[in-house]
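User: Predict the complex.
Assistant: Input components as received:
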Amino acid sequence: MKADALRGHLDALILAVVEDEPLHGYGISEALHSRSEGAIDLPTGTLYPALRRLERLGYLRSSWSTVGGRKRRTYQLTRSGRAELAARQHDWHQTSSVIGAILGTGPAG
Amino acid sequence: MKADALRGHLDALILAVVEDEPLHGYGISEALHSRSEGAIDLPTGTLYPALRRLERLGYLRSSWSTVGGRKRRTYQLTRSGRAELAARQHDWHQTSSVIGAILGTGPAG
DNA sequence: TTTCGATAGGTAGCTAGACGACATGTAGGC
DNA sequence: GCCTACATGTCGTCTAGCTACCTATCGAAA
């Protein structure tokens, strides 16, 4: 599945996976991949600009470290990022219920 | 709610409302407004280009008429539009279940 | 030793689609 | 005459995701 299908909700997904624990870009990509059972496979040209944008907006804070000789930039959710995530989750529930009502919610919601 | 939140799924919504009965642009706008309980309010700069695109792609067919002295362009779903709608509905169910699984489906989801 | 896959981070240029602002016109009520 | 609802449309702008490309480390395989 392309992130294009998630348009406008990708930020929420990223914020959601770093909510549980701070993660670096590659780790976020893997977390989304596994949590979606393989459905989400973000190209780096989508992920990294998104992370930088979210940091610029103040929702994430990053720090560099070196693990196993490789440099990592680890992102953690800020206070305002946590609030943003809650708002985005609310947006998502509204959006999905509206679209679901028109398209037919299908099996079990 | 902005159509931006529906990105990539707006076409499906339009095809869905004209599936039941042929409608003109303004009527489609009203149908989406009422079916979403007021949540969707499409600007004309979003709706009309979308309709022309869907017609160009062969999913809709239009015809002009005059009702009460006003000109209407009425759109109806084509055979291929019907197939496209089914495909888009399927996409939506997949997308919403993936996002729901990560964000939390909310109450009883 | 070189090559390859996994890990790790990044940019540049392109494109689709939604947006706000604007343009045009009819009909009916005040 | 003016306003609101009805009705259709364009134009230039902006967001955000995409493809393609680049750099670099590490361990295993050839």
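The two ends of chain B are 22 Å apart (CA to CA).
Let me know if you want any component modeled separately.
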